[in-house]
Amino acid sequence: MSIYIRPRVPGATVFFTVTLAHRGTTLLTEHIDLLRDAVRKTRAERPFGVDGWVVLPDHLHAVWTLPDDDADFSTRWGAIKARFTMAVRARCDDGGTVGRASARLPDELPVVRSGRYAGLKPGLRPSKRETGIWQRRFWEHHIRNAEDYRNHVRYCLVNPVKHGLVERPEEWPCSSIHRDIREGRFAA
Length: 188
Fold this sequence. Notes:
alpha+beta; 4 strands
């Protein structure tokens, strides 16, 4: 197993892709209120700026700017993932599965308790604290310059179009594009 060391740059602006363990589900958009609450609570504890954000059914993209004296985005993502997972489990628990009916997760995705790993995809074996909703890691890219920033924020905003979910970015409800339009930073 390779060892990955993430850069630690205080005040960095970083692009992220965070994905569910099982692609093709609609968990994130069906429970967008729980995800928004998890982000809000995490930002209250550990502030960060949201430059761009889009939530698709099974993954999300975001561009964050960290505080000048802080480089710890991993703890923030861990808190968001944990809060969302606990909230979804509380809402959808139906005898040991996470949202099988309402969130359309595969039947074989159990809530992992006491080290039971049956039904999880190889390589996704969670620790005792995980439920197997999220992929263990996330992808990050430190923004290098103004052009790189514009490209990654735009990538967030147009991603629903790329995936064929809408024809125009402003038609997708789970995007920071609506804030940007209100604030005059994006012309529809």
